[in-house]
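Risk register update: the risk of archive-format incompatibility is retired. Evidence:
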Amino acid sequence: MKRTGIFGGSFNPIHNGHVIIGRTMLKAMELDEVWYMVSPQNPWKQGASDLAPEQVRYEITKAALEGEEGLVASDYEFHLPRPSYTWNTLQHLEQDYPDHRFVLIIGGDNWDRFPNWAHAEEIMQRYQIAVFPRSNLQSSMGTWASRPRQCSIVNVPLIDITSTDIRRMLRNGEDASPFIPEKAAELILRHYIRKNI
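Archived output:
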């Protein structure tokens, strides 16, 4: 049985912090792979005007992870009903990959609102969850009165950057190269500057 981490997100665009999360989770959670599940339509971000096309975000993520052992870009959700609910994705993954045991990877910000996710209780009962804290560690970990045993906290080296920051820097002509994967830099510059996203 392969242990596979599912790290979902818009990745608009992917940045070095995302890559560090995957590397850390591989070791800390003893995973065989981490799949970067590029979301075509996040339920929390419907109608976002600055969202690059899904195929662009996938190609950039794929380029960023080239040569990163165990880190894999996935367009799996592109072929599922939208918006992309995690419960639905996990159910389909179980059917298509019966030889995998899936571990859900989420940030502390998502843990804050996890009780509001579709089928939150079912996800908690059926899957292991690995949470990487953000700066709001205490509030994130205290969302539910008691943290279920299936939920692990994994301390990840924090990079104080977000995809929103990257887009803002590029719009303003600032140098974002220290924060984006070198192998994806050309694609990021091409799509996020020329398209003015």
